[in-house]
């Protein structure tokens, strides 16, 4: 009786262990499948989000660059217009001064000469007796030597027509720090200048730089 009971208990234990291992294996498989599905779902959610963030960043960079380029272009146009207006105002003021001088000279010529009153006989006799002394001739005033013209600041790139402050700053950062590099560029300087070929009047920069003394 004791041996039969023991063998039947062993069979039951083996059967329980077998069922437990089977159930554990099924549970592990279910957990593995769930994790795979979770990973797949996570990738399906994350990939579009990452793509959307990347597209937003690219769009922001493009818009910032477009805005920066447009701002610099408008700023350069404003400086060119300002320079043109100042030049025109300067020329107009000189012409007005010259016209005013010519008109004043014409008015002086048209004015009638003032006649001296006729001398009386007594005054004529006195004038003959008293011979006035001649005033010493005045020495001509020495002409002042023209003031020496101050040389232009060769490091101020904005003196070149067509280069505004923003463009000048970028050129200096690129290594163009002197007007001479624009007026007579080396091969390396020309390569640096070609990076600014999109600015207005680029073809005339060298000619404008040579005008500056």
Strand content: under 5%
SS class: mainly alpha
**Biggest beta sheet summary:** none
User: What gross morphology would you assign?
Assistant: rod-shaped
> What string, H for helix and E for strand, traces the elements in order?
HHHHHH
Structure description:
With 213 residues, the protein is an all-alpha fold. It has helices at 2-110, 121-129, 165-174, 180-183, 187-193, 205-210. The N and C termini lie far apart (126 Å).
Question: Secondary-structure map with pairings?
Answer:
Elements: H1 2-110, H2 121-129, H3 165-174, H4 180-183, H5 187-193, H6 205-210
Task: Please describe the structure with a list of short key phrases separated by commas or semicolons.
single chain, 213 residues, mainly alpha, 6 helices, 68% helix, rod-shaped
Report a brief summary of the structure.
By secondary structure, the protein is an all-alpha fold.
């Amino acid at each position: 009786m004791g041996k039969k009971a023991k063998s039947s208990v062993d069979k039951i234990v083996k059967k329980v262990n077998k069922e437990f291992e089977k159930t554990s294996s099924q549970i592990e498989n279910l957990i593995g499948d769930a994790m795979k599905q979770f990973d797949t779902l996570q990738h399906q959610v994350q990939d579009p989000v990452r793509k959307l963030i990347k597209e937003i960043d690219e769009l922001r960079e493009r818009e910032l660059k477009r805005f920066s380029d447009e701002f610099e272009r408008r700023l350069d146009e404003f400086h060119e217009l300002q320079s043109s207006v100042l030049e025109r105002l300067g020329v107009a003021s000189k012409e007005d001064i010259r016209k005013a001088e010519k008109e004043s000279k014409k008015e002086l010529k048209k004015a009638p000469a003032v006649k001296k009153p006729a001398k009386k006989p007594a005054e004529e006799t006195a004038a003959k007796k008293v011979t006035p002394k001649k005033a010493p001739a005045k020495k001509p005033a020495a002409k002042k030597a023209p003031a020496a013209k101050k040389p232009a600041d060769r490091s101020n790139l904005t003196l070149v027509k067509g280069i505004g402050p923003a463009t000048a700053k970028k050129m200096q950062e690129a290594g163009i720090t002197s007007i001479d590099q624009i007026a007579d560029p080396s091969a390396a300087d020309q390569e640096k200048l070609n990076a600014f070929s999109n600015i207005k009047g680029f073809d005339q920069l060298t000619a404008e730089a040579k005008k500056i003394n």
